[in-house]
Structure of Glucokinase:
Amino acid sequence: MSMSKIPLEYAIGVDIGGTNTKCGIVNRRGEVLQYEALSTPEYETPQAFVDAMCVRLNLMIDKVGGDELIKGIGIGAPNGNYYTGTIEYAPNLRWEGIVPLADMVSERMNLPTALTNDANAAAVGEMQYGAAKGMRDFITITLGTGVGSGIVANGQIIYGHDGFAGELGHTIIRPGGRKHWSTDLYGSLEAYASATGVAVTAREMLQKEPEKQSILRKYQLEELTSKNVFDCAMQGDEISQEVYKFTGQILGESLANFVMFSSPEAIILFGGLIKAGKLIFEPTIEHMEKNLLPIFKNKVKVIKSDLHEADAAILGASALVWEMKQSHASL
Amino acid sequence: MSMSKIPLEYAIGVDIGGTNTKCGIVNRRGEVLQYEALSTPEYETPQAFVDAMCVRLNLMIDKVGGDELIKGIGIGAPNGNYYTGTIEYAPNLRWEGIVPLADMVSERMNLPTALTNDANAAAVGEMQYGAAKGMRDFITITLGTGVGSGIVANGQIIYGHDGFAGELGHTIIRPGGRKHWSTDLYGSLEAYASATGVAVTAREMLQKEPEKQSILRKYQLEELTSKNVFDCAMQGDEISQEVYKFTGQILGESLANFVMFSSPEAIILFGGLIKAGKLIFEPTIEHMEKNLLPIFKNKVKVIKSDLHEADAAILGASALVWEMKQSHASL
């Protein structure tokens, strides 16, 4: 065997968020070599945004040695459709209707470009660089401002017939329960296990037991955040810890449903909520196990993401590039 | 182009049920050419059962012209594991522990043999011969004595990491709700949308409104069956129709959750419950749509199975044969 070198190749990862868009150049090992960011809502039209973004991409590309080293561009975006490379009616972006973003970027950059929603990108990132390396069946769940998810079965992301599969945050776990502030659905997982949901639960608990002492009461009820709940729980506050127990119960019951759907080897959790460590993991695992059929019990790992949070979105988007088949990417 | 014939090839389908095992020889078009059956619980050991079954398979094979025309054997069985070809701890079979049935049959018959659970087999049957022909993303749900399901995404059955994915009947849709008679889970779909569940709902409704007239009252409360509910509903009985409304609501809410998981093109329903036609389809679709995110609304077809019910189990099992890759089948 000759000592041939692995070809030096990089992927560009772009994470489009409601506030910021982060861009990076990433190597096969998941190291972010170059980094740029821009404000998403500053650009009135998708074209103006793409122009501004591509200036930054070219800057980064020059720094790593030119575009012959770049295999492609991966984009994670809210309501991103993998099949069409479009962003469709994203509620937290100012561009209306259907935006053919992947095509716009690949025309401008002359590089194959794949696009999916941010949660699916996170799952591909875990498979490529993170806790799901080598797994063919797993689910990632992001517990942040919202609850996002990416599902991998048979080694492939499940995109569904229309490219929108994997909206586990919007599955109903308390029929007739808490109304979601933006979807208007009742009792969805996101209404409870998101940062907003945790704050709502804390407010409800404080109001339900007005006599009970809690250091949470030092905050204005309406301004209470999930961060406050975390801080107080760490200081041993009972109501704050109850909030995590309740949230973990609902999350665990939801995970049981997901396990009976796709029987994953692992469920990988990510995002602000899991900073609470065993306060959230223990009730989650307890209630997941309690609601599983015997054939699924004590089999599914519930683990933390391996990816560094600041880089995770870029890494996930960049990982789309390594997965690229020409047929799936615009060029 | 030469006028070469399509090779004449047959598949054997075997459906192992708690009461009967049905065997058939099926052609590519899904026509059952030969048929045999045997009593499952009559055989004390798996070996005795396999011996008796293989006698019947050989009888059928002789009638269609010998085993060089047989591509393989597909078996649908409760708790069947596709990866290992084993039946594992099936509660309604008398054989205990893990039975390596696919290996036993393929050794005896010298034909490649694939095995999966009956619900997954039904999904493969719909894809091969039925309502899902040409679809790459769909879910089949059998609403019979129990509630079974098979999930296809990216054109492949989702088996999960252990071979047991697709237990949608056991997902929880009413947390803390009705206790299931055999799993002891609370509020699972099967506790409501199975034949047993329908009978329980009818009993509950009759007891809740003891003054309300219903022709259901001509039956002994404890002996009431889903068939009675069907008959009375067809005669316009109000409580019986309410039973379907309630069952459809719970089924529809569950379907919404499944759609947000895998975004299927269609959900194909099968089994006794759907005989009630629009009495069950209307509330099911209504409550599914009501619980979907806008991006999923009015997209998913909820349809009846195309397969003839008497043959469906054999067809589903036989369809495993056309899907066979050597790596998945025991030989």
